[in-house]
Every structure is written in structure tokens, then in C-alpha cells.
């Protein structure tokens, strides 16, 4: 789950596309070119290859380029994942534990870490158009690297903004995230992308 999460963060924070004659790709490029920060609520689900629901979660997301994000999971249990672009904090309030890791070290394990370097999408992915579905324009990204952690990524756009993201892994499990109440270019306090561990929290990792 964590690798998929960081893939999503990288895609939203730093993706640069090559303007091919694929309408959804052009639409996504325009959206990302105009987006320096965003906030949204999200619903997330994981299903197996037969379509059986394995996990559901929900919460809110805030991001600011480059490298800053704040995921606040409410369901199924409270959890925060925060980055200031240098460190990433993964905080579980029920366990009273926070795992701290270097930003670059975590992202090095992601198959889309190059996107943070403003390289073109089609260097690492085969880009394919998909049929419109549920009022959304879709685009499919297939990793060229055979050792990638996922087989394909699907992005749905509605009203010229990202609405849905899907990741299909090598076990045919599918993670889908649907965004709601998306706000483009909100302002954030710098401290919102920092984490101060509550008193009594067990701190694990690089701090």
C-alpha cells in the first residue's frame, strides 16, 4: 500500500506530460501545469482480481509542490502521512507511533520516482487512451520497467481535473482513489507540512 501511496504523491506533485494527440493526456497536462497545490477529500478501496473488496479507507489530502503532502486518513483508523520534502512522517495515533524516513530514500523504491525530476511521462510509460466512462475521460499508463510494482495506472478526469486514480499491481489487485471537493492552488501554512510528535509517541527511524 505504501509504495502505491508514494506513486500517487509523486504523480500529483510533479508530473510532466508529453503533449501527444490523446485528449485525456492533453487535458491532464493542462491541469497539472496550472496546479501548484491542491486539497481534496478522498475515498479509497482495494479489491482483489475477482473484484472482492479487501479494504476501504477515506480521508483528506493536501499537497504543495515540490515534495510536500499531508494525507489524513480517517477510516478505517486515524493515520497521517506527512512530508516536508525532506522527511516523511507516518503517524498512527492508536499505536502512538511515528515512523520517520528520508524523503529521497522512500521515493527511491517507487517506479515513478523519476517524475519528481520533470522527465517526460512517455520515457517510463506507454501512454494509451481509454474509453470515456462514468462521465470521465481516461488515460492508461503502463510501466516500461518489467520490475515495476504495478502493471498499470489509470487516471480519470472530470471537468478538466483529476477525479479517479487506479493502480493495478502484479497480483491483479486494484487500488482505486476517488477525489471529491478538489480545490486547486489553495494556500497553506508552511507548518502544515511538518510534524511534531505528541508527547509519549514512540519515534522510529531517521529523525
From TrEMBL:
It is found in: Periplasm. Gene3D superfamilies: Lipoprotein localisation LolA/LolB/LppX. One of its GO terms (cellular component) is outer membrane-bounded periplasmic space. CDD domains: LolA (cd16325). InterPro entries: LolA/LolB/LppX (IPR029046), OM_lipoprot_carrier_LolA-like (IPR004564), OM_lipoprot_carrier_LolA_Pbac (IPR018323). The keyword tRNA processing does not apply. GO terms for biological process: lipoprotein localization to outer membrane; lipoprotein transport. Residues 1-19 form the signal peptide. Pfam families: LolA. It comes from the Bacteria. Keywords: Chaperone, Lipoprotein, Periplasm, Protein transport, Signal, Transport. The keyword Ribosomal protein does not apply. PANTHER family: OUTER-MEMBRANE LIPOPROTEIN CARRIER PROTEIN. Monomer. Participates in the translocation of lipoproteins from the inner membrane to the outer membrane. Only forms a complex with a lipoprotein if the residue after the N-terminal Cys is not an aspartate (The Asp acts as a targeting signal to indicate that the lipoprotein should stay in the inner membrane). Belongs to the LolA family. This is Outer-membrane lipoprotein carrier protein.
Amino acid at each position: 500500500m505504501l509504495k502505491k501511496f508514494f506513486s500517487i504523491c509523486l504523480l500529483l506533485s510533479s508530473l510532466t506530460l508529453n503533449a501527444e494527440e490523446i485528449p485525456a493526456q492533453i487535458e491532464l497536462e493542462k491541469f497539472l501545469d496550472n496546479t501548484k497545490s491542491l486539497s481534496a477529500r478522498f475515498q479509497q478501496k482495494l479489491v482483489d482480481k475477482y473484484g472482492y473488496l479487501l479494504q476501504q479507507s477515506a480521508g483528506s489530502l493536501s499537497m504543495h509542490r515540490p515534495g510536500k503532502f499531508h494525507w489524513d486518513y480517517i477510516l478505517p483508523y486515524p493515520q497521517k502521512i506527512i512530508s516536508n520534502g525532506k522527511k516523511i512522517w507516518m503517524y498512527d495515533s492508536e499505536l502512538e507511533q511515528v515512523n520517520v524516513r528520508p524523503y529521497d530514500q522512500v521515493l527511491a523504491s517507487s517506479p515513478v520516482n523519476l517524475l519528481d525530476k520533470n522527465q517526460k511521462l512517455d520515457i517510463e510509460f506507454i501512454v494509451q487512451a481509454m474509453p470515456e466512462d462514468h462521465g470521465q475521460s481516461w488515460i492508461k499508463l503502463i510501466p516500461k520497467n518489467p520490475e515495476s510494482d504495478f502493471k498499470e495506472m489509470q487516471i480519470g478526469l472530470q471537468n478538466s481535473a483529476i477525479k479517479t486514480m487506479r493502480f493495478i499491481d502484479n497480483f491483479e489487485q486494484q487500488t482505486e482513489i476517488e477525489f471529491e471537493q478538489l480545490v486547486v492552488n489553495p494556500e497553506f501554512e508552511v507548518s502544515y507540512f511538518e510534524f511534531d510528535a505528541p508527547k509519549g509517541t514512540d519515534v522510529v527511524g531517521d529523525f
